[in-house]
Amino acid sequence: MFRIAVPNKGSLSEPAADMLREAGYRQRRDTRELVLADPDNDVEFFFLRPRDVAVYVGSGTVDAGITGRDLLLDSGAHAVEHLPLGFARSTFRFAAPSGTVTEVPQIAGLRVATSYNLLVENYLADRGIAADRVVHLDGAVESSVRLGVADVIADVVETGTTLRAAGLEVFGEPILRSEAVLIKCADREDPDGLATLTRRLQGVLTAHEYVLMDYDVPVDKVDAAVAITPGLESPTVSPLHDRDWAAVRAMVPRKQTNRVMDDLYEVGARAIIVTSIHASRL
Fold first, then answer.
1. pLDDT(253) > 90
2. How far apart are CA 134 and CA 111, in angstroms?
3. Which residue spans within 115-209 are E strands per DSSP?
């Protein structure tokens, strides 16, 4: 069986399970299950700590896995990113007490607290910056400066509210923009099953990103309408009973739906209908 490691808890767990379920794979109903076989798809799922997924994939114990880009890079495992999955996005940044550190080079000689030691150490080393030391903490990193453990922190930043409450502000460019990723072993040939898993997950991503748009348009306005909805390769254009009109079907980016509908209406399209895509193969 093709073996896939999946996060067993945390912010990655539920979205990963939802995506795999949409891709046609069986998923567990009881969070206490550690292994789940899906014989219909010749797949076996292993539910692991998110930080451990890359280690198992890199060692070849499992064939592929879902984890965060930040966790992959911090693991030092012999695994590589295969496909970005578009959920659990986050930004990883440095922060310090207001007005104390404003540029990354100023970290030289200072103590940096983080839960992502290797990621931070590699980032600083790549820029020739020698911190006094990188202090590992498993959580509540923003408290480390006030408690005298560190001078600077490196942590995931969403709104920045927690940092501001601790008297900290971000500085420098983001260290990393992370999201959930499908990973594989770095030096093995792609195992049987990876191509199918990849196509299925890409199909889910496409279904999330696009909608199907159908509309009727006067024949003499087809070219103008098609310019608005070019589709992926080319839209489908079909004649209607009234030969002065044509029916058009095209895939349209979901975020542009209402603007596209407005533009189509302006050129004369009518009966504009939008349908969600549940699955796809491109």
1. yes
2. 6
3. 133-136, 152-157, 168-178, 180-185
